[in-house]
Specification:
267 residues; alpha+beta; PH-domain like; 2 domains; 7-stranded antiparallel beta sheet; 6-stranded antiparallel beta sheet; 4 helices; PH domain-containing protein
Length: 267
């Protein structure tokens, strides 16, 4: 199961929020006013340039649209007090970072209620992005128990669907299964479906395997080696990371291969 997730995809669906935000112009290093229309599948940005209202501005040819991608985060920003030319010195700022594209949008709010308005915009963007992410997952429950009649799942400690960043703006939805360690390594196995019949790849985890989390941000994304994943929710991401870190700690400490009784206790 694969789908395209590029910035150029159509932005449509339910209008979640609209209003004026400052956006950073990278060339001028200045925050400029834009009308932002936030949808369930992305957002439109229209330069103000004297437009009388968001409705009037929406008709301008200068409007740009940006579709959501799962591998993104919304993060609060703080101005650098030691920089005289910091464009974030006035108002409250936040960023939308797109990991795969290596891009970022910096937004800002101003006025007496700037901090509260920033929180509202961040919450709306996170909710829209999380709803977009969740729409690509089939119904499922995270599992810790092996499948009856499928011996390859006997050492499972955690399994469920994840989004995986593939090449050329494509995203797949493999069923991922983390296995208990055996001697000096463990396996993270990917299948096409939860029946675990068709293999879609695997990652060998050893004591030096890099596992990366975007700390300090409300994002469902994490990475294992060169593979970038996105969980259905932030809570499920933390569940995966906890299981992965537990396995890695056991490998670092040269823990013996667990017995069947020990596996049952872990689950």
């Amino acid at each position: 199961m694969t789908f395209e997730a590029s910035l150029s995809q159509p932005v449509e669906g339910r209008l979640a929020k609209q209003g004026t935000l400052l956006m950073l112009d990278g060339e001028d290093n200045r925050m400029k006013p834009w009308t932002v229309l936030l949808f369930s599948s992305g957002f439109w940005a229209i330069p103000r340039d004297g437009a009388a209202s968001p409705q009037a501005a929406a008709d301008l040819c200068a409007a740009d649209s940006y579709a959501w991608t799962p591998f993104a985060e919304v993060r609060e920003l703080t101005a650098n007090p030691g920089s005289d030319d910091c464009p974030l010195a006035e108002g409250s700022a936040f960023a939308l970072n797109l990991f795969r594209e290596g891009l970022g949008f910096v937004f800002g709010t101003t006025g007496l209620g700037a901090a509260e308005e920033r929180l509202q915009w961040m919450a709306s963007m996170r909710a829209a992005l999380q709803g977009f992410i969740a729409s690509f997952f089939p119904p499922f429950s995270v599992s810790v128990w092996p499948l009856a009649g499928v011996p390859s799942t006997a050492t499972r400690v955690l399994a469920g669907y994840l989004l995986r960043d593939d090449d050329n703006a494509m995203v797949s939805v493999p069923y991922v299964e983390l296995h208990a360690h055996r001697r000096d390594s463990a396996l993270l196995v990917m299948y096409q479906t939860e029946t675990c019949e068709s293999l879609d790849g695997s990652i060998v985890i050893n004591p030096v395997t890099p596992i990366f989390d975007h700390e300090g941000a409300e994002t469902s994304c994490f990475s294992v080696k060169d593979f970038h994943f996105c969980a259905r929710s932030v809570n499920e991401k933390h569940l995966w990371l906890r299981a992965l870190y537990n396995i890695k700690v056991k490998l670092l400490n040269c823990a013996p291969t667990p017995t069947g009784r020990e596996l049952k206790h872990w689950r």
